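Notebook entry, structure prediction.
Reason for the run: the old model in the group folder had no record of what sequence produced it. Starting over properly, with the input documented here first.
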Amino acid sequence: MAMKSLLLFLFFFFPITFQAQEEERFADKPLFRDPVFDGAADPVVIWNHAEQKWFMLYTNRKASDTTLDGVTWVHGTRIGIAESSDGGVTWQYRDTCDIQYRPDSGYTHWAPEVIYNKGLYHMYLTYVPGVFADWKHPRRIVHHTSKNLIEWQYESTLDLASEKVIDACVFQLPGGGWRMYYNNEADKKSIYYADSPDLYNWTDSCRKVVGDRGGEGPYVFQWRGKYRMIVDNWNGLGVYSSDDLVNWHRQSDVILGKSGTGPDDEGFGHHAMVVVSNDRAFLFYFTHPGRKAGASLFDQRRSSVHVAELEMEEGQVVCQRDKPVLIRLVPPEGWTE
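New structure, fully documented this time:
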């Protein structure tokens, strides 16, 4: 009777905790489409500590505005927010980030990288000074901070290897400090890195660590005894491994290089990130499923966000994108307040 009374007490006073532990369901397919411009891309997924839910921040390209020519439709963008209260199974549109760093007319915000440290969120955002019809213009990485993942305060513009840098990824070093990997477009779209002791002051290495082929959107994570990096090569995601976070070795096969067959998952997988949850690695990526012969301009441009699970086979990272994903992301432990 004593055990039964204890269980009843816990059920009535902590029902949300029990429910969260029991709910593991198959993720939506597609996982998310932006209801404003239908151009969700470059997703980053992070736990919102205050709201106790998952947030997805993403580049919101203007796919639905078919009056825009050249590549102007991927400029003039703001960072969108989607949220999930069920561990990543379903996602709903929330808002756009309030980023007041807008020094130029027609400012462009791309590819947010967001991490949490000591009670504060840090965003490293790609900033383009205007709206352009081609790719010939400067791009910088700017640092912002926030307490709620919505309102962001400008901190600095980073001094990196060139005036054309995009797609930051920040990883905490095992010996202390932080490392930022980014795409240096001025050097054949190679991956470079910079280091920081405190997330505010950065020293660029001016060193290329991945340059065997052009790519963008580097993302680094630790899983199954190795450091891993995924890079968007535009024909699938290249996968690299490292023991020291400097010397990277490419595996023979890309992932998401063959078209999926699920709803809105056709074409290559692009610009991805990974959430490691209880040693399971969930890959969040986007696709352009409508890029087919004879498709309308809108269908060629629109994009969808998906999730798939990474697995290991014979020492290589693989991803069966058509396999249903049973998911419930577990909030990270040990966050320093």
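Summary: The longest strand covers residues 108-117.
The old model has been moved to the deprecated folder.
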